[in-house]
Amino acid sequence: MHRSFFIKTYGCQMNSYDSEKINDLLLFNGFRKAEDLEKTDVAILNTCHIREKASEKLYSDLGRLSIFKKNKEKLGKKFSIVVMGCVAQAEGKEIINRNNSVDYVVGPQNIQIIPNLLKKENFEKVHVNFLSEEKFQSLTFSKTNKTASMISIQEGCDKFCSFCVVPYTRGAEFSRTVEDIYAEINHVVQKGTKEVTLLGQNVSSYESTIYEDKEKKIKLANLCNIISKIPRLKRIRYLTSHPNDIDNYLISEHAKNEKMMPFLHLPIQSGSDKILKKMNRKHTKKQYLDLVKKIKLVVPKMAFSSDFIVGYPGETEEDFEQTVSVVNAVKFASSYSFVYSSRPGTPASTQEDVINPEVKKKRLTYLQELLIKHQNNFNNFFLDKEVEVLITDVGKKDNQYVGRTPHLQPVHVYSKKNLIGKILNIKIERLTSFSFHGKILN
Ligand code: SAH
Ligand code: SF4
Ligand code: F3S
C-alpha cells in the first residue's frame, strides 16, 4: 500500500496554493491522503515566518510530532516529517538542529521535489534554492472542482519593507508567463470555476510577455483583460497589491470590465509619513488617500481593505493618530491589523526605539474596534438590498449554502436544490457578526 500524507498549512494564500499543488503532486505520484496528522505516514508542515507567533507554531507542532514519530518507530513503522514554506526558507538547517526528527526542510520554491524526496530517500535534507521558474513548470493542474480558485501568477517581492521577511523567504519577484496562467485558469474553469483570485506577494507589479509579441509588456490590467475573455469565467480578483503599483490601466480595466470585482485589498500599514518612511514603504499618507480618491472617482462601487501594523519602533501617539485618521477617511470594508513583531534579519529588527507591549496592545485594540465599526457600517448598507452572490460552498446546516458578494462578504441561504456555482440575486435580510443571511430572488 502507498504511504499516506497530511499537509498542515499556515500563513497566506500563497502557502494555500502551494499546499494544493503538493497535494496534487503527491496524489499523482501514488500517495494517499490521510485524515489528520495523527493518522498519516508523512506529515508535511507548510509554515509561515511573517510574525514571531506564526513561526513558533512550527516548533510546537514538531514537539508533538517527534514524540509521535518515536512511538511509531518503536512499532517498526516509518514516519516522515517534511517542513516546507517560509520558515523552511528562513531557518534552513537550523530547524533540524532544533528538532532532529525532521526529515526534510524544503523552501517555497523547491516544493516540486517533495514526491522524489519521499520516494527515493537518502537525499540531501535541506533544499532552499530560489527556483521559481522550475517550480511553476513542474506543478500539475488541479484535479479538484472548485467554484472559486486561487491561481498564483507572481511570486517574491523586491520592495523590502523594513519589517518584512517576504523578500528573503520568497526571493526576488518572478512573474509566470501569460500562457501558463491562461492554461491553468482555462483548466479550472473547465472544471467548474467561476471566480479566480490571481495571487502574488506583489500582484500589482506583475509583468510578463506573450509568445506572439515578445516586445509587448503584459501587466496586471492586460492579464485581467486577457483572461476575462474566457466565457465561463465570471469573476476576477487579485491579491495583494502595493499602492505604488496601481496604474491607470488597472483602474480603467475595473471601470470597463464587469468581471473585475469592486474590492481592492490595498495595505497601507501606517498613516504616519514618518513611520511609512522608516518602513521603506515609498509612499505617503496623502499619496495613498489620493489614490483611493482617484479609484473611487473612476470606479464608484470600489470598496477597500487594508493591513495595518501598530507599534512599529518609534511610533508615537501622534503617529498612531495619523493611522486612525486614514481609517476614518477611507472607511475600509474590512481589514487585518497586527502589532509589530520584530523579525530576525530584517532592517527594522535593529531599531532601538521599540514600543512597550502594553502600548502596542492598547493601540491595536483601539484600531480593531474602529475597523469593526466601519466594517459594520459598510455591511449594514446592504441590508434589505438585492445583491449578486456566487454560491461557492455548502453551509454547516442542512440545505444551507454559502456564497460571496462582489465585495467578498459571505452570504448564507437555504435551498433544497444544489446551488454550487450559481450566481443568484439574493435579498439580504440579516447580518450576524460578519456574514449575511438572505432569500433567493431568482
Ligand atoms: N505583500 C503584502 C503582504 C505581505 S504580509 C503587502 O505588501 O502588503 C501580510 C501582512 O503582514 C502585511 O501587510 C503586514 O501588515 C503584516 N506584517 C508583515 N511583517 C510584519 C511584522 N514584522 N510584524 C507585524 N506584521 C507584519
Ligand atoms: Fe513585505 Fe513590503 Fe513586499 Fe509586502 S511589499 S511582501 S510588506 S516587503
Ligand atoms: Fe507567511 Fe510566507 Fe505568506 S511568511 S504570509 S507564508 S509569504
Structure explained in plain terms:
There is one protein chain. The chain contains 14 helices and 21 strands. It has 442 residues and is an alpha/beta fold. The model has no long low-confidence stretch (mean pLDDT 95). Helix 9 (220-227) packs parallel to helix 10. The chain folds into 3 domains: 4-131, Methylthiotransferase, N-terminal domain (Rossmann fold, 3-Layer(aba) Sandwich); 134-380, pyruvate-formate lyase- activating enzyme (Alpha-Beta Horseshoe), CATH 3.80.30.20; 386-440, OB fold (Dihydrolipoamide Acetyltransferase, E2P), CATH 2.40.50. It has helices at residues 13-28, 52-74, 86-91, 94-98, 114-120, 132-138, 166-169, 178-190, 220-227, 248-256, 273-278, 285-298, 317-330, 357-380; strands at 4-9, 32-33, 42-47, 80-85, 104-106, 126-127, 148-152, 154-155, 174-175, 195-199, 207-210, 213-219, 235-239, 263-265, 303-310, 334-339, 386-394, 400-404, 410-414, 423-432, 435-440. It has a 6-stranded parallel sheet, with helices on both faces. Strands 17-18-19-21-20 form a 5-stranded mixed β-barrel. It is 35% helix and 24% strand. Helix 13 (317-330) links the parallel strand 15 (303-310) and strand 16 (334-339). The termini are far apart. Bound molecules: S-adenosyl-L-homocysteine, iron/sulfur cluster and FE3-S4 cluster. Residues 50-51, 163-164, 166, 201-202, 240, 242, 267, 269, 307, 309, 338, 340-341, 343 line the site of S-adenosyl-L-homocysteine.
Radius of gyration (CA) equals 23 Å
Ligand list:
S-adenosyl-L-homocysteine, iron/sulfur cluster, FE3-S4 cluster
**CATH class categorisation of the largest domain:** Alpha Beta
Strand adjacency order, main sheet: 2-1-3-4-5-6
Sheet having the most strands:
6 strands, parallel
- The number of distinct helices, counting runs of at least 4 residues, comes to 14
CATH-scheme architecture of the largest domain: Alpha-Beta Horseshoe
Classify the secondary structure makeup into a structural class: alpha/beta
Number of strands: 21
